[in-house]
Structures are given as C-alpha cells and as structure tokens.
Amino acid sequence: EALPPERLRGLGPYKVLLSNPRFHLACHVKGLENVVRHGLTTWVPIYYFEEAGLSIESTVLLTVLLPLGYLIAPPMAGIASDRLLHSARRPMVLISCGVSSVVLAALAFAPPDNISLGAALLLVGGLAIGMSPMAAMAVDISGRRMSGTASGLLDAHGYLYSGTMAIVFSVLLDMGGSPWPIIFLFMAGTRILAAGMIARVRV
Predict the structure, then answer these.
(1) Which of 183, 87, 68, 176 minimizes the C-alpha distance to 129?
(2) 177-189, pLDDT tens digit by residue?
(3) Which residues have CB under 8 Å from 115's CB, separation 6+?
(4) If I label 177, which of 17, 25, 60, 73 is the partner at 20 to 30 A Cα–Cα?
C-alpha cells in the first residue's frame, strides 16, 4: 500500500508482484491446489466408472458431493478466517492441505466398490479443498491497489497447473495401465508440498 504512484504505472504492478518471493510461493500453492481441485473433478468420475463398474448416471450422483463441498466450504472458511483467526489466512490453507492430503491417501487405498466410503471421502475432500482462501491471501500480500493484478496472476498460475495436470495424468493413466492409486497419492503429495510452501509465507 505504501508504494509510490510511479511504481504502479504501466507494467509496474507486474514487476512488483513477480519480484516478491511470497507472492511467487502463493501462486505455486494455488497452482498445486488446482491440480487437486480440477484433477478430482476431471478424473474421479472416470475412476468410479472404470474401477467400480458404475454407470455414468451413478458416477454423477456420487461425484456431485465433491463440488458440493467446494460450494459449502468457502463461506464458512471466510468467516472462520476473518472472525476466529483475525484475518489470518495461512492456518486455513494449512488445515486445507492437511485434511485433503489424508483424504486423497485414503482414496488411493479405499476399495472403489465401497461407494459409501467413497462418497464420504469426496464430500470431506471437497470441503477441505474449498476452505483454502488463496485469493484473499494474494490480496493480503499485494495490497488493495494491486489486488486485481494479483488475482489475475494467481488465477493464471492455477490454470497453468491445471492444464499441465490434465496432460501428465492422462499420459500416466494411458501408459501405466490406469495406476489410480499413484494418481491419488501424487495429488496427496502436492498438498503436502503446498503446505510446506505456504508455511514460509508470512503476511
């Protein structure tokens, strides 16, 4: 907020943000988060279709619990962050990473035909991933006058990681004979990595 006006002209906000190590880490955490968020949305229906023998209609009814968690969690996380944690975002991100990594590891080893367990894990996973307030954290780092630029760069990182995930996972599944446990454990690993990164970001 204390930046002189001349540093905010033209490409100035991009230079300021892209030279900020904390913002770099936040962007990578957002990217790793999108690997899981979009990875689950993309691949879980196919997983249950292939491994549990569910019909497409049944997979829709099961996997809708995941975006339901995405929907419910953000308002709850925002209130918790603002009121209970005095606008601290990092604890919410760490909790999100920790819980979702456990859920993903459980999905890797849970029998795919145990539909009740799968449904519970998807709902908890959606809630855990949805409670990560990375957009708010990016604005906290950048300040109000660069909030739009910060949000745009954060989202760009997220979509870059999502696109890369789609390519890497499709190659792994095609060439490796559908190694689904490895896919889920890989995503769990990204959550652990994200936790290590965000632990270094102090706002």
Answers:
(1) 68
(2) 889 999 999 999 9
(3) 52, 54, 62
(4) 60
pLDDT higher for 1 or 102? 102
Q: Give the model confidence (pLDDT) of 108-119 as tens digits.
A: 999 999 999 999
